[in-house]
Amino acid sequence: MSPQRRKKKTTPENPKLMLRLYIVENAIHSNHAIANLKAICTKHLADHFKLEIVDVLNEPRQIIKYQILATPTLIKLSPEPVRTIIGDLSDEQKVLDALGIMPAPPPSS
Amino acid sequence: MPTTKKQNSPIPKCLTGISGFDDITNGGLPRGRATLLMGGTGSGKTVFALQTLVNGARTSREPGIFVAFEEGADRINANAASFNWNARELGENQLFIFDARVRPDVVKAGEFDLKGMLAGIKDKVTTMKAKRIVFDSLDVLLNLLENPALERREVYRLFDWLVENELTGIITMKLEAGQPAAGSYAFMQFHSECVVQLGRRQVNRFSLRELQVLKYRGSSHSDDQTPFVILSSGIEVASNSPSELEHEASTERVPTGIAQLDEMLGGGYFRGNSALITGAPGTAKSILSGAFIEAACRRGERTLYITFDENASEVERNLSSVSIEIGSYHRSGLLRFFVARTEAASGPVHLMKIKLLIEEFKPRCVVVDPVSALIRAGDVETAETIVERLLYNTQAKGITTICTSIVEDTATLLGTTPIYVTTITDTWIHVSYFIQSGERNRSLSIVKSRGMGHSNRICELILSDNGVALNDVYVSQGEVVMGSLRWSRQLEEQAEHRQVKAEIEKMQREIDKAKAELPAQVDSLERQLNIKQAKLNELIAAQNAQEASRTRQLKPETGHTKSEMPSKGHKSTSGKTTGPRRHGKGEAQ
What we know:
The complex is a heterodimer.
Chain A (H helix, E strand, L loop, with lengths): L1 H12 L3 E7 L4 H17 L4 E7 L5 H5 L7 E6 L4 E4 L5 H8 L10
Parallel strand pairs in A: 1-2
Antiparallel strand pairs in A: 1-3, 3-4
Chain B lengths: L12 E2 L6 H4 L4 E2 L3 E6 L5 H15 L4 E5 L4 H9 L13 E5 L7 E2 L6 H14 L3 E5 L1 H8 L2 H17 L3 E7 L11 H6 L2 E10 L2 E11 L9 E6 L2 E4 L4 H4 L7 E2 L4 H6 L4 E2 L3 E6 L5 H14 L4 E5 L4 H9 L6 H6 L2 E5 L7 H15 L3 E5 L1 H6 L3 H17 L3 E7 L3 H4 L5 H6 L2 E10 L2 E11 L8 E7 L2 E6 L12 H70 L4 H19 L2 H9 L1
Parallel strand pairs in B: 3-8, 3-9, 4-5, 4-7, 7-8, 15-19, 15-20, 16-17, 16-18, 18-19
Antiparallel strand pairs in B: 1-2, 9-10, 10-11, 11-12, 13-14, 20-21, 21-22, 22-23
């Protein structure tokens, strides 16, 4: 119910969120980040996002190209402005603020 | 701190190419290990790190990666371009700058690690075949981690990664030892094979940079605080490598430019040794060194004149007044001037510049006039090492060095700073002047001269239009010229000597006179005698005549025999008293 309501609200205002997550496969923080991000997206974005997960061990050149210092690093590519979030995304509020997402109202309201 | 005294360290080293640093660490940084480079803002960490990479890429064919957490690649490039390294000539496959700045809008939402970054860099290392890497500066990254346990884990990860990939790493940290924060990063020092600290302190009005190797596991190193400077060539560390002190003692003599002084020193200075000329202002120290320069240039030897108070044309003009002409050698490039105004920089900076100039110009002779200016331009503590380093440096290169130093007299010299200079230098010449009857005169003496017989004489230094000359000191009558007891005694002895001599001469003259008068006196006595004799003869003759007339009156026939008697008597008397000539004379009268 609530995802559908938000979906209606957000669709005309913004295009889909384009996200890229740089990880190291099987690294503990990377695994946490994937789980945390998926939970946040499900909770607040429904399917209104596109997530690309890059394992830097497979594509190491991206580290230097995109100046990735830390893994995991989440980059919001669009809409503008581009934002970078580092860490395992365990701090949900910070992630939402950085991505510019209004938190979904609790189910009771 | 493990400071082993092994000369040949078993651990492999990596030359930084930073002159002086490779000396004090006996070969540079630990190869394939992490070196922690600590220092405050503006202490020269980035320059040190960049210089190591540029030198590695250029001279050791070891490509390097600069991971810049703090400054952008453009600023790092500009920094490198401000030195005369021609860093821009290096391709990206020789020196790569990874712009790893943390953007200010980065949000930290949870824990992270450096695995990904290291994987990315490793990829670059593999493609470039990089051997050296710099992380500048790590505190930016640690601030992001915020958690001491994570900091430690990631630092260990980084250090281990360097070892795994056989990279010689410099990890800079914006940190001064002794700061409160230093304690929490002590684990980094423990984990590093080598810890170098760069610092800066104010000495008088100069800023003095110092470098110290706090730790070097498994290697001998100097753990002194060593001054360094940042010049257009980059970092120059003042060091006395042990090799610098190993030089062959020369027996070759170098003329001083003054024949009499060569004679006093038994042939001149020793090649590659140093001499100190001390004296009050105006005692012709510069002229003595000028004479040395002129002689050196005449032999065709490249000479470096380091002057602190005057410029080249002033020096040339002043020397020209005593017929020492060095202008033509200056113009031909045989003589090079280094004019360093005392206030321009601190002693260590001067020293570095001089050392570089010596490297480039390769002189056979160096004059520092006055070395006391070099000492003034810093504190006493460093002054000693500055002069020492300069002289060790020139000695090691076989350069004959003349230093002048302003001192009022040798007595006060013992209590002042430059005294140690006198222990370093091999020959010490002191010039003093004394004012007497409206005249100022200069006297020169050799206080010491190592390894050569030398005169103990005090000489008068005479400057004239014809040049410089040394004469034995003139002691005037009844007056102590040199103001010392020794001279006073010498004077007394000389006066006494003169008096005895005068008496002898007087007596001799009297004797000579008496001798000269003797024949005349004898003559006069003889004459008196002859006169008496003549009177006597007359009397006898008169008496005989009387007797004869009386006899003729009595017996006229016997008169002939009686007349012979007076002639007999006359003959016998005259024969007894005088020689035949005088006798004749006497008879004539």
